[in-house]
Amino acid sequence: MTPEDLKQFVRTVPDFPAPGILFRDVTTLIGHGPSLTAAIGHLATRAQASGATMLAGMEARGFIFGAAAAAHAGIGFIPVRKPGKLPVPTIGVDYQLEYGTDRLEIDPTTITPGQHVALVDDLIATGGTALAATELLRSAGAIVTHAFFVIDLPDLAGADRLRAAGVTVDALMDFPGH
Q1: Which residues form the Phosphoribosyltransferase domain (predicted)?
Q2: Fewer Cβ close by (within 10 Å): the C or N end of the chain?
Q3: pLDDT confidence of residue 148
């Protein structure tokens, strides 16, 4: 199944979370075994080609795609967590949301300095979370040069923000709008 074929398994929910927004929901893709398998295979192949030795996924849907792609590629996975979820000393980064701030944390012992780590998530919109995860992983010594997404919303320019930070962005599909 090609990435273009996978688009039919992404549900569009109008007016969520606010009027005028077209929410791209991957729940339907995840719930369809062949499309989930194909998406994971595409992400894993691209991650392997990038030279990544670890994948990092942001909570929560990045865990689904990132851990599965890492297992498929035969490499490790780093969970990028919300605050207070890891039982060991962590490092973290605060970042801006549209209305407030949030924080991401990792266990820094999961990264060997100089290790090539690629990001994986379900969707790139404004890029705030992916940029924060990149900063956090780099602060732990990772070399982050690639990020892989199931969906890109190019009108929101998140991929462009990541590229400006020196990260090559690759998405299986894109959708216009926000």
Answers
A1: 32-150
A2: C
A3: 98
- Give the pLDDT mean for 120-144: 97
Q: Is the pTM of this model over 0.90?
A: yes
Distance of CA 152 to the CA centre of its chain: 10
Which one is the CATH code of 3-174: 3.30.160.270, 3.40.50.980, 3.40.50.2020, 3.40.50.150? Answer: 3.40.50.2020
pLDDT band at 100 (very low <50, low <70, confident <90, very high): confident
Tell me the C-alpha distance between 123 and 130, whole Å.
10
The single residue of 4, 24, 61, 138 carrying the catalytic annotation is 61
Distances (CA, A) of 92 to 67, 89, 114: 20, 10, 19
Confidence bin at 134 (pLDDT 50/70/90):
very high
Best CA proximity match to 146, nearest among 79, 52, 31: 52
CA-based nearest residue to 137, from 170, 168, 115: 115
Is 135 among the residues known to form the active site? no
Q: Decide if 119 contacts 159 (C-beta within 8 A).
A: no
Q: Is 98 part of the annotated catalytic residue set?
A: yes
DSSP string covering 19-60: TT-EEEETHHHHTSHHHHHHHHHHHHHHHHHHT-SEEEEETT
At residue 91, the 3 state secondary structure works out as strand
